[in-house]
From TrEMBL:
Pathway: Porphyrin-containing compound metabolism. Belongs to the Ahb/Nir family. Keywords: Lyase. Residues 7-51, 172-218 form the Siroheme decarboxylase NirL-like HTH domain. Its EC number is 4.1.1.111. This is siroheme decarboxylase. It comes from Hydrogenobacter hydrogenophilus.
Length: 332
């Protein structure tokens, strides 16, 4: 791929500016026309490199409860169980991984419904799953995939700011309900959203800026198909770190470009690992080497790499939709 292509792939993974013509602003930053940029993005989508350009919201700041869940599933039942799990509208990621707990998925549950634990219990009962984990995030050190590096060992400066939760007003929920999913690849996408909402474009942009300032809207950016972008290896590294060292180690891990997400999570009787770092690289060897480097630098010996072997689902949640309630009603 040419240098211009690499620049485009890099900028669309960053934050789309909240201005009337965001693609014009991005195009000018790499010295091409707005039309050329939009055509390139369309080609990347058609070629299966880019999934979409879409808003990324913080589910907890929207009032949703969320957790990482793992099921231990017999291999001959894995596809059946994975299909059922994927049928849940608020499961966004669902993967087979290299571990006895072999099915891993992220679940978000909207407010004013069953608890997350009750939903997981119902899912386990429905699939005959006896052994499962519900791992909640305790602290976040990094979140956000940007596949724009040559080596997973490259470093970057990361700062994660925790914002206080503030319930959304009804008109804000309606904005989220409309401004989600695949963004229109047009000169004025926010104008199109504003028309759907019966608002002025400037009013919508100001509201989105406020949601971003409050931590509700993380960013608007491209989501890639990792393998087609050259990042064929994906591992969830899990680490057993003493509580007094979690902050230091978490911040250290978050500083690597090859780490997209880094969380401290809850543990349990059958799960001792409390620090999670999602790693992306061009080979499994690269990720083994990165984990080894972290292990040696921080003196950590109790860790594992869970490589993803099959993607069952990766899709943005449709927030403030009735889909989950209908799914849950059918389940119960």
């Amino acid at each position: 791929m040419g240098n211009e292509f690499d620049k485009i792939l890099k900028i669309i993974q960053q934050d789309l500016p909240l201005v009337s013509r965001p693609f014009l602003t991005l195009a000018e930053s790499v010295g091409i026309t707005e039309s050329e940029l939009l055509k390139t993005i369309e080609k990347l989508v058609d070629d299966g490199v880019v999934r979409e350009i879409a808003p990324i919201y913080d589910s907890k700041m929207l009032g949703y409860d969320s957790a990482l869940v793992a099921f231990k599933v017999p291999q001959d039942k894995l596809q059946m169980v994975a299909d059922f799990v994927s049928s849940c509208p608020t499961v966004s990621h669902n993967y087979e991984r290299t571990h006895p707990f072999n099915l891993w998925f992220t679940l978000a549950v909207p407010p004013d419904t069953l608890s997350l634990e009750d939903v997981v219990r119902l899912m386990a009962e429905r699939t005959g799953t006896l052994d499962y984990l519900v791992l909640r995030a305790v602290r976040t050190f990094k979140i956000g995939v940007r596949l724009d590096y040559e080596s997973a060992h490259e470093k970057e400066s990361v700062g994660f700011t925790h914002k206080p939760y503030k319930p959304l007003k009804e008109h804000e929920k309606e904005v989220v309900r409309v401004v989600q999913g695949r963004m229109p690849l047009t000169e004025r996408p926010f104008f199109e959203y504003a028309q759907m909402l019966g608002m002025k474009e400037e009013e919508l942009l100001n509201l989105l800026k406020d949601l971003k300032e409050r931590g509700v809207l993380r960013r608007i950016s491209a989501v890639l198909y990792h393998r087609r972008a050259g990042f064929v290896a994906n591992a969830m590294s899990v680490w057993n770190v003493s509580e007094d060292r979690v902050e230091d180690v978490g911040n250290f891990m978050a500083g690597f470009k090859g780490v997209s997400h880094c969380y401290e999570r809850t543990t349990g009787e059958s799960w001792r690992y409390n620090l999670f770092a999602m790693m992306h690289g061009r080979s499994e060897e690269e990720l083994y080497n990165l984990a080894k480097h972290i292990s040696q630098e921080k003196g950590l010996d109790d860790y594992a790499l869970l490589f993803s072997t099959k993607e069952f689902k990766k899709r943005r949640i449709k927030y403030f939709s009735e889909d989950f309630k209908r799914w849950l009603k059918a389940l119960t």
